[in-house]
Recover the amino acids of this structure.
């Protein structure tokens, strides 16, 4: 196929954006970490940093193991059986994944915090951190593994049963070996998310013993101004993540070739399968809904225990008198403005990447567009601090950072849709007199509607909830909802906790509403 | 020594997929379940395999009621329409899958796999990944896998439908030979009558969840029970009895439809002697339409003395000259070509 100038232009623009706002900051961090070698020596000789690396790795492995232990049975059951309301369940399972970290964090505080509903105070314990990580990543395992198996496993299990292997033996000899690449891919993704856990730790376990590398980088940068060691830690983190990402792409490649997919109607569960399925759904629902419900209940609880009450919302909306506390109105306005701007930016950049990959010969961009996913937000914010100090107090700093974090999602959502477009349509349009630009506008873009909506909702949700990079780049004037929440949580006093709850409720509702309104059944290619 | 299906029923919502099927399968017999798509034949096969529970009815194997037995304990081998080979296992381990469940020793299993791969002509491909096989090879692996544990009954669900025409013909012959040679009883589901009659000794025609007719190849082909079965098998000369008053040998009276088997009609030159003997009648005919379908000719003939139009199909050598529309000839119809059907 001939390559049009449009895809070339998009490829150049996408590369330029990535080089400027991603590769350059990373390069500056790298240079800083090498420096005169003193920072490197300092970090290497300090057992504290080794401890942090050990803890971060261990915590991520443990979180991954727990998530798999809980998610795998769910995935196997989802792939095997039909049940009433399955579509709704599947959608509900993605809620945690798109919910801002801060919301999830406060949700668990509302359950197990010092003022939590259960009365059980787990704040500052590893258990609570692990629970939040499982909450966050459960859907990844169920959807990646379950979705992978759904197309083929039922028929193969039928075949296995005629050969003497019942449900248990079939699972052991067919489903599990088949699911292995998908399971490993999902696990590496979960590991990456937990390895760079930041907001969850800051909110649920703000103690030095439970600090991840990501938290440590933030502390070194924002509070101790030790930029050299911070840069070294970033590089260490990048090396680990790069290695894990490599495994992930390997596994993804193996997932791509394996199964002959055939759409088919799954049977209803019978007997023991029914109980297993019911138990699994109950546990998953409790895990997903409990923190969000607790948050909503506590946010609407008045100072005197009245329910429902708007006390907290009113409190959050009123100027607090504390320096640097954004009111609900300011924070919401900032959040929406940044999210709107960065969504537009992310759509443009993400589309440029997807178009250049799908229509041009820019295959290398396919891999490159995944890089920001394998880089932590704090790293990005830190890189901007070093490379573009002027961006920090500039209104464009936050939207650019958010767009960079969000555009890989846009690219992933658009790629399958673009690849699925019939190339003959473009050819037909060309024979009817449309040049490449006109083909894009009149033939290709109109067909991308659902995928664009999915991409928009992802980009918007990412920006609304983004916490790590924002925390490093923000100035009080530009405080977003997550920042306003975090600031209030850092202060003692029930009125601040109440205001944080109210802000989190608003953030949760706005994010949820956008996802519900824009999310169509487009598929994302992870 | 028999497999008996007793009044099997299976409903999906309002759809009666299998609606009271009773069949008996003798030892070493191959039975074809023939029917159009959606007639319930695949569902029936899944009931027999135990993959779905029937709503009603019983499945009895050699005197034991196995209706409630799960598929893994029935020892029925099944060849699936798209083969359902395990993509994570190579050819050898696919074929050995059932042997592992039966706790066969490694050596015994290896010997049995080798024997079966030899039987289906795939020796030497033991280590091949199944995705690297052609469609025909995959089909053979699926057959070998189903046969390896020496199943009580072999079930085949449209095993050739995913293959192209020439391969289908070749494999059809191979399957016929294998099924005739092996000491196994089999149920062969297909929508293709040439497959059914080639492979099976007995054929059951299925329609809307019921068995429309069951019998040997000859019984079913030559004496279809209903007009629907006759049409499904490709018969085109179906008449109402009342329309045949002018035909000397046709069964007269009654409301049941009457079938004229075109394969028994002979075409004669226009000057052949007219006769109305004990065994056959000859009448004038005229070609209404002539159409070529590959090597065969399809003619529509008008027989004015009997006030009848009939369809004839055959090779060019059976015709005196290339047929053209309007050409005159004579037809010889033996008495035995006519038969009265039992229902519409």
């Amino acid at each position: 196929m001939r390559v049009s100038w449009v895809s070339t232009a998009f490829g150049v623009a996408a590369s330029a954006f990535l080089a400027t706002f991603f590769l350059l900051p990373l390069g500056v961090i790298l240079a800083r970490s090498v420096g005169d070698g003193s920072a490197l020596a300092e970090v290497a000789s300090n057992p504290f940093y080794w401890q942090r690396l050990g803890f971060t790795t261990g915590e991520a492995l443990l979180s991954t193991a727990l998530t798999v232990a809980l998610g795998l049975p769910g995935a196997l059951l989802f792939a095997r059986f039909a049940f009433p309301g399955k579509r709704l369940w599947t959608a509900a399972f993605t809620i945690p994944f798109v919910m801002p970290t801060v919301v999830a964090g406060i949700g668990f505080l509302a359950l197990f915090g010092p003022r939590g509903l259960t009365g059980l105070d787990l704040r500052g314990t590893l258990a609570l951190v692990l629970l939040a990580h499982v909450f966050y990543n459960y859907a990844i395992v169920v959807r990646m593994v379950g979705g992978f198996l759904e197309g083929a496993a039922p028929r193969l299990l039928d075949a296995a049963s005629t050969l003497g292997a019942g449900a248990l033996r079939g699972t052991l000899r067919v489903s599990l070996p088949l699911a292995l690449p998908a399971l490993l891919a999902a696990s590496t993704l979960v590991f990456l998310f937990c390895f760079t856990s930041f907001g969850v730790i800051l909110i649920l376990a703000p103690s030095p013993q439970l600090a991840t590398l990501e938290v440590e980088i933030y502390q070194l940068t924002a509070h101790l101004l030790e930029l050299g060691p911070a840069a070294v830690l970033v590089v260490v983190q990048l090396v680990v993540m790069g290695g894990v990402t490599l495994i992930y792409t390997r596994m993804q490649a193996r997932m791509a070739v394996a199964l002959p997919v055939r759409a088919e109607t799954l049977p209803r569960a019978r007997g023991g399968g029914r109980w297993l399925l019911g138990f699994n759904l109950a546990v998953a629902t409790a895990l997903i809904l409990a923190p969000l419900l607790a948050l909503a209940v506590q946010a609407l609880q008045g100072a005197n225990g009245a329910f429902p009450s708007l006390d907290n919302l009113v409190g959050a909306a009123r100027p607090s008198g504390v320096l640097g506390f954004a009111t609900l109105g300011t924070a919401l306005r900032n959040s929406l403005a940044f999210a709107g701007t960065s969504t537009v930016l992310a759509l443009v950049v993400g589309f440029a990447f997807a178009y250049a990959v799908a229509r041009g010969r820019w295959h290398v961009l396919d891999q490159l567009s995944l890089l920001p996913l394998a880089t932590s937000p704090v790293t990005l914010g830190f890189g901007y601090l070093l490379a573009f100090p002027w961006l920090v107090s500039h209104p464009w700093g936050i939207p650019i950072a958010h767009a960079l974090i969000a555009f890989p999602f846009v690219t992933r959502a658009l790629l399958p849709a673009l690849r699925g477009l019939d190339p003959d349509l473009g050819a037909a349009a060309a024979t009817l007199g449309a040049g490449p630009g006109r083909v894009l506008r009149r033939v290709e873009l109109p067909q991308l509607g659902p995928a664009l909506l999915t991409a928009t909702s992802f980009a918007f949700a990412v920006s609304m909830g983004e916490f790590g990079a924002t925390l490093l780049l923000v100035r009080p004037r530009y405080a977003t909802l997550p920042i306003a929440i975090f600031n209030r949580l850092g202060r003692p006093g029930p009125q601040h906790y109440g205001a944080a709850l109210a802000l989190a409720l608003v953030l949760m509702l706005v994010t949820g509403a956008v996802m519900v309104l824009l999310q169509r059944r487009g598929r994302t290619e992870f | 020594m028999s497999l008996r299906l007793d009044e099997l029923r299976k409903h999906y919502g309002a759809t009666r997929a299998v609606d009271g099927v009773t069949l008996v399968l003798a030892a070493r017999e191959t039975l074809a379940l023939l029917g159009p798509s959606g007639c319930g034949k695949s569902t029936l096969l899944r009931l027999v395999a135990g993959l779905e529970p029937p709503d009603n009815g019983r499945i009895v194997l050699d005197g034991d009621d196995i209706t409630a037995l799960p598929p893994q304990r029935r020892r029925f081998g099944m060849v699936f329409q798209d083969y359902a080979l395990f993509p994570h296992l190579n050819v050898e381990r696919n074929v050995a899958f059932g042997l592992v469940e039966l706790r066969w020793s490694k050596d015994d299993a290896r010997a049995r796999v080798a024997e079966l791969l030899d039987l289906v002509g795939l020796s030497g491909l033991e280590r091949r990944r199944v995705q690297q096989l052609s469609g025909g090879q995959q089909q053979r692996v699926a057959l070998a896998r189903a046969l390896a544990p020496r199943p009580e009954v072999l079930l085949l669900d449209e095993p050739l439908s995913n293959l192209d025409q020439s391969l289908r013909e070749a494999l059809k012959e191979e399957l016929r030979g294998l099924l005739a040679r092996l000491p196994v009883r089999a149920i062969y589901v297909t929508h293709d009558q040439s497959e059914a009659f080639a492979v099976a000794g007995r054929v059951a025609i299925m329609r809307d969840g019921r068995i429309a007719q069951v019998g040997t190849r000859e019984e079913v082909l030559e004496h279809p029970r209903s007009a629907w079965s006759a049409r499904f098998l490709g018969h085109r000369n179906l008449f109402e009895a009342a329309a045949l008053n002018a035909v000397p040998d046709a069964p007269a009276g009654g409301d049941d439809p009457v079938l004229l088997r075109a394969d028994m009609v002979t075409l004669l030159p226009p000057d052949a002697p007219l006769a109305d003997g004990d065994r056959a009648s000859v009448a004038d005919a005229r070609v209404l339409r002539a159409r070529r379908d590959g090597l065969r000719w399809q003619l529509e003939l008008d027989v004015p003395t009997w006030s009848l139009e009939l369809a004839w199909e055959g090779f060019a050598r059976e015709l005196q000259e290339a047929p053209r529309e309007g050409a005159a000839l004579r037809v010889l119809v033996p008495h035995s070509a006519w038969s009265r059907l039992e229902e519409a």
